[in-house]
Structure formats: C-alpha cells, structure tokens
Amino acid sequence: MHPFQHFLLAGFNQVAADSWANDERIVIQAVFFNLVPDLPTSLTDLAALQRGMAKMAAAQGGALIEAGVMPVGGQPALRQIIKVKLPNQPHGQAFLGSYIVPKAACSAVLRVQAAESGAFGQREAMIMGQVGPTNYFRPHPYGSDGEGGLPSHVADDPAYDPQFPQHPLTRVRQVMAQLAQQVELHPGFAALPPFTR
Question: CA-CA distance, 165 to 44, in Å (whole number)?
C-alpha cells in the first residue's frame, strides 16, 4: 500500500491498482519503492540535486524542465517535471511530474503524467513566433549536465501556461498544485528516518 492518503481529485477514476485517470488522459500514480532512493544527493543541496536530476533525465533522452524542494503532506519532497519523447512516434512529447518523498531506505512517489495528442508542437511553434528563434532556445537552467537530451527552450516556462490552458504541461502543473494542497502521508511513513547522502 502506498503511503499517500486523501489525494484523489474530482473527475479521476481508478484504472489500475495505484493509478487513476480522467477524461483528458491525465494519469495520477501513487507508488511506494522499498529501496534506497536513487537521488544524486539529499534534498538539502538543491543546486547539486537539480544538476544531478537534469543529468539523469538527459541520459534517458528527456529533459528536466523544473525541480525544487517543497513540503508534501508535511514532509520535504522533490517536485520535478520532465519531458520525454512519445515512444514509437516521430513527433510529440509527454510531460511527467512527480513528488518524491525520500526516506533512508524507501520512498513514496506521486506522479502526474499527460501527453500531447492531435496537433503536436503548437505551443512551441506559437511561442517561437512570439519571441523569435534567437530568443527561443536557452541554456539548460540547471547547467551543462542537462545537455544531451531534449532541448531547453522558453516554451516550457510556466509564464506561458495561461496562453495554453489545455496543453499537457499546463495541466500537469495544475494537477500537481491541486495535489500538493490536499495530499497527506501515512504517519508511519512520515516517521521513518530521513534520506541523507
């Protein structure tokens, strides 16, 4: 049983043991890993954590869009959003958000994922048209360790979410914000020794 409690949102229906989805094909998963977390460093060294997570995402062909530490259910958690190519398709991306609550010997992960469908790349094309090609691509926000995966560009910035309210990246951010306001953690899990590295 996963440690998360009271996190289900209106419109989401259970589709698997620990997975829920809505009509927009946004999926929420709650997962417990009975393993030492594979985070590159503890949550107290944010810059090193961001660099390490960016490197991991790039090595898998994706890109870390944003990462930070915030409380979830009263416990410190890594909040991150990555983008990946859609498997077995020439175009399109999926956006994967997660809250990772690490402990010394295990972790709880609450994931939110949504994928592009239909006309791919509209957000990117429209924002490139607004800012111009020379201002569109940018260095990875967490340093060169993020190079090698998908490119970093301004279209992923949350400032553009209001222009694209139904885009999967916007929706992932919205659902994650809703979850953070109501999720609770099982007291037994919350009391476990913290993750350090």
Answer: 33
Number of Cβ atoms within 10 Å of the Cβ of 34 = 7
Here the tokens at position 9 are 């949102």
- pLDDT of 143 reads 78
Q: How far apart are CA 97 and CA 58, in angstroms?
A: 16
DSSP state, residue 149: S
Q: Dump pLDDT digits (tens) for 33-52.
A: 999 999 999 999 999 999 99
Point out which residues pair with 14 in neighbouring strands. Answer: 20
CATH topology of domain 4-186: Protein Transport Mog1p; Chain A (3.40.1000)
pLDDT value for 14: 94
Residue 170 is encoded by which pair of tokens? 């916007």
Residue 155 and residue 123 in contact, taking contact as beta carbons nearer than 8 Å: yes
Helix, coil or strand: residue 182: helix
> From the CB of residue 2, how many other CB atoms can be counted at a distance below 10 Å?
18
Collapse the DSSP code of 80 into the 3-class scheme (helix H, G, I; strand E, B; otherwise coil) and give the result.
strand
Write the CA distances from 191 to 16, 37, 71, 186, integer angstroms: 28, 17, 15, 9
